[in-house]
Structure formats: C-alpha cells, structure tokens
Specification:
Helix content: 40-55%
Strand content: 5-15%
Number of domains: 2
Distance between the termini: 86 Å
Shape: elongated
Low-confidence stretches: 160-164
Order of helices and strands: EEHHEHEHEH
Length: 227
C-alpha cells in the first residue's frame, strides 16, 4: 500500500494490476503530466529505455491519479510525505499460527510492515517523483508532521474503466513512435561508440606492435654493432 499525506489529507492507494493503462490517458491530467516530466528526466539521463519500469502502475502513480481527481490535476508537492509499505509473506512460525486459526492471518501491526523504497529500475521509476515534486519520502526515522483532518470525509475512488479517447490514443501513438525513434537512435549511437572504441583499440594495438618491433630491431642492431 502507498500513502500520500499532507496537512489536511491522507490518500491511501495500491498498485494497479491488469486492465488498460490508465496513467497515460488525457483524462488523468495529473498522472500524465507527472509521467511526462519523469520521462523527460530519464531521457536527460540518457537511459537506454526511458519508460517507467512498472508501467506507472505503482501505488505512487495510483495515488497521483486519485489526488488529481480530488483536486483538478494537483500533484504532490514539498508539503507532502509519501511512503509505500508491504507485509512480507508469512514465515514458518506464522504459517503454524495461520493453520491453527483456520487459514486466517492475523491483522498486521506496525512491526509487521516493511517500508518499500520508490522503484527505480534501469528504465526509470517512482524514485523520480520526490525529485520533481519536492515530496518527502518517509522512513522509520522521519519526524511526524502535524495534520488536521477536521472536516475531511472518507471516500473511495475507482480508477476506471475509461472509454477510449481518440485524441488520447492519437497522442499515445505519437509518443510511442517518438519513444521508438529515441530507442533506435540511442542503440545506433551506442553501437557507433562501441565500433569507434574497437577501431581505436585496434589502431593502438597496431601502434604498440610497431613500436615494439622498432625497439627490438634497434636493440638487435646495437647488439650486432657491439659484436
């Protein structure tokens, strides 16, 4: 589970599994804008495949989606704390407890939960969200901030499904082509650099061989002259 918290609001979200990709839809302006900013950052870092490692399906982006629904496109800012936690699979001792409890696992306590850092694979991930928004990633050492939920209401928000928007699909197709071109250009550039390096290495090896040959030749002449 993932949590965004500011002074007046707590947003709890989970990762999304299955179904269509909602986070690139124009109807989710906040999630789309943040993901576009992330992709620009990853391209600037010259990542080989600058897309979200988990297809933007993490709880962080689901929470951004909900935040955008509630506040017309708002995204996390410097007043926001963010944290993701998960409960590890039961060990041998807990499995025995579950068995004795007719297959029911006891409710999790704070001690059972493990903080999950924002993802950041080779392509890119949620670790860029704090950098781009100023949100603080909470840890066990994070100092609790004051908050006031007076007047707040508990509510749930579904993520879809959406009807496909022709304009959104067109933009997605254009972005896919642009990304594919970037990948090809990046691959070609890497191959060209590798080829150039191999050529330089070969030239340097030939130069060293010639130098060693000349050195041996001079040594041989000197030896013959002395004899």
């Amino acid at each position: 589970m993932h949590v965004y918290q500011n002074q007046h609001e707590i947003i709890v979200s989970s990762s999304k599994k299955g179904g269509p990709d909602l986070h690139l839809d124009v109807k989710n302006a906040s999630g789309r804008k943040l993901l576009e900013d992330c992709m620009k950052k990853w391209r600037g870092e010259d990542r080989a495949n600058p897309t979200h490692t988990n297809e933007a399906a993490c709880g962080e982006f689901t929470g951004v989606h909900i935040m955008g629904q509630l506040h017309k496109g708002k995204i996390p800012d410097e007043n926001t704390q963010m944290v993701a936690v998960h409960r590890p699979a039961p060990g041998a001792k807990e499995k025995e407890e579950i068995k004795k409890n007719k297959g029911i696992r006891r409710p999790a306590t704070k001690e059972d939960l493990v903080i999950q850092p924002p993802c950041d694979g080779g392509r890119g991930g949620c670790a860029s969200i704090p950098t781009l928004t100023g949100a603080e990633v909470a840890s066990k050492e994070t100092t609790e901030k004051d908050y006031d939920l007076t007047g707040s209401e508990f509510s749930t928000h579904a993520l879809g499904p959406y009807e496909e928007d022709p304009a959104a699909k067109k933009k997605q197709d254009e972005e896919k082509l642009e990304l594919e071109k970037y990948r090809k250009d990046h691959k070609a550039r890497m191959q060209a650099e590798l080829k150039a390096k191999k050529q330089r290495d070969k030239q340097e090896a030939v130069a060293r061989a010639k130098a060693n040959y000349e050195k041996a030749k001079q040594a041989e002449k000197k030896q013959h002259g002395q004899s």
